[in-house]
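Minimal example, chain plus nicotinamide-adenine-dinucleotide.
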Amino acid sequence: MRIAVPAETDPAEARVAATPETVKKFIGLGASVTVESGAGLKSSFLDADYSAAGATIAQGPAATLADADIILRVRRPAGSELAGAKKGALLLAILDPYGHVDALQQLADAGVDAFAMELTPRITRAQVMDVLSSQANLAGYRAVIDAAAEYGRAVPMMMTAAGTVPAAKAFIMGVGVAGLQAIATARRIGAIVTATDVRPATKEQVESLGAKFIAVEDEEFKQAETAGGYAKEMSAAYQEKQKALTASHIAKQDIVITTALIPGRPAPKLITEDMIAAMRPGSVIVDLAAERGGNTALTRPGEKFVTGNGVTILGYLNIAGRLAATASSLYARNLLAFADAFIDKTNKTLAVNWDDEIVKATLLTKDGALVHPNFQKPA
Ligand code: NAD
């Protein structure tokens, strides 16, 4: 059984889908692993490290993919990047399926059975495979570090001989995995932290981290969580009330980290132009929802932008990738855990249980066709 680790082709992607640690474990499970030369460089893993772990180093994508049973990637490859892949090879990657059915069709046409890692159900057994959590956790941490680096003032309260410096106020909007880590990180570096979310369950989580919870807690709020634990899209009336509350609060904040997302929908616009205009010069917003359109009216995806009133808005994409070595280590472990279930340890062969609930939730293409009910070409 062969596992291939091609290099990522997007120049903005610094992560890699396997590390020397996971290569060693795959080999321990009876696989042979081929890594494309240079694949780990931007994550600080050298070809020599992979070789020492037992991998074969191949030059170029075709030699890497040849005869592979499992292909590990961070991002969705174009169909052309899979030239030479074996029919029925399993592709494990973050496939970004929403709104990209044509790109998924290319994967089907390339003959690979493609699994979207981000659709892994949030059940206990799958926690170790949960790429959304592993990457969002790092993004939440990095957002606070980026904000602190941009902020031209000290974050913690400092009592010095020259006088006292007040602590910065940080407001975290959206308390999922990224938001919780942002709260914890902002607290660790000494900020006074408040947070908001539309899911009632988050109130206790915010308070347990020592931050203050701020939200419109009406009847709609009490019903705002889906059975899957995600937020529902809120009504226009709720969003107006939420904006009024946010407007008065945000004007007093120094650092705002926004993380609000609703699966499969554009990011909700939580911060208006007027709210930004009311913020202090020197304050910083980090918009972790930039990839899905952003939570602020002025976010420029992929860019740092300073408004006329001196507010810095960071709309960086792929924030976890700004911690490429750590993000790769955790992502690679997620893939190892996911692929482990596909390997028959006795015969050292592929043995996928196509009826497994995790397989069904994540498998998008099989035998040349789109097979996931949520990602079909319109008739
Ligand atoms: P996410 O990235 O989908 O969204 C981030 C946050 O934005 C969520 O907390 C959401 O409620 C919030 N949000 C949406 N609209 C908002 C609005 N208008 N205003 C304010 N906040 C808004 O979330 P996530 O980090 O993927 O977490 C989603 C859920 O999954 C959570 O309940 C989390 O605890 C749960 N989870 C479970 C597991 C598991 O294995 N059991 C693992 C990870 C996460």
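The first strand starts at residue 2 and ends at 5. The mean pLDDT is 95.
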